Amino acid sequence: MKIASSISAYWLYTFLLSLCMTACNSSQAQREQVTSDGYSTKEAHPDGTGKVYLGREIAGIMGAGGGGWLERNTRQEEEDVALAIENMSLSPQSVVADIGAGTGYYTFRIAPKVPEGKVYAIDVQDAFITALNEKKRELGLTNIEVVKGGDQSPNLLDASLDLAIMVDVYHELEYPQEMLQAIHKALKPDGKLLLLEYRAEDDSVPIKELHKMSVNQVNKELSANGFQLSDKKDFLPIQHFLLYEKVEE
């Protein structure tokens, strides 16, 4: 009798556990809804949008009010921007797109490196577009073209770029899948895409969780959209330096 009682208790426990797991899975499915475009939605993190791509919640975009932080006096010391640019393998003729240029912190430092080429400074926010044009006129740089980008495309011609860069921008793209596919088209056959992203693997990096990315997550999203990692450097103080090339179609 004791054995039968123990077996009955075991099966009752197993049944109740199964019901609990089913309810939990159902609750999770209700919290995260998959949409027809390959994205899903969930209850938004305080710093997020509630939109999820390949397991990652997309971060909220930094508004033009954050321009002062982009131009902070400590940025070179904290991020070593000069070293990042030095490792971009630019030639005097390079055509570069700074996607999500913001105030142009990178744009205006890259332009002198490509005197016979061009830098497209691309942003979706009108306030940044205005500021970029004003600074371009102020500095008299003729090889910079300011472009109003879209949320799904940088609005550039196909096969026009040697290098596209996104500096702490990719994690905020509202439509990463569509933007990556548009960038893929805008790059020349041997063109490269460079992502600089704060390191999610390093808890000491003083950046909010959703505004950092791991190499594994970046690789997952880029490989799903026609890119493969061609170079990874670890010389920057708090960012990944990830260079991608187009996969042959």
From TrEMBL:
For biological process, the GO terms are: methylation
Where would one find the signal peptide in this protein? 1-29
Residues in Methyltransferase type domain copies = 98-193
Q: What is its EC number?
A: 2.1.1.-
GO molecular function annotation: methyltransferase activity
Q: Which InterPro entries does the record cross-reference, listed alphabetically?
A: Methyltransf_12, SAM-dependent_MTases_sf
Q: What is its EC class? A: transferase
Among CDD domains, the record links this protein to: AdoMet_MTases (cd02440)
Pfam families to which the protein is assigned, alphabetical: Methyltransf_12
Q: Does the keyword Signal apply?
A: yes
Instruction: Report whether Signal shows up as a keyword of the record.
Output: yes
Keyword annotations of the record: Methyltransferase, Signal, Transferase
Tell me what this protein is called: Class I SAM-dependent methyltransferase
Give the originating organism: Pontibacter toksunensis
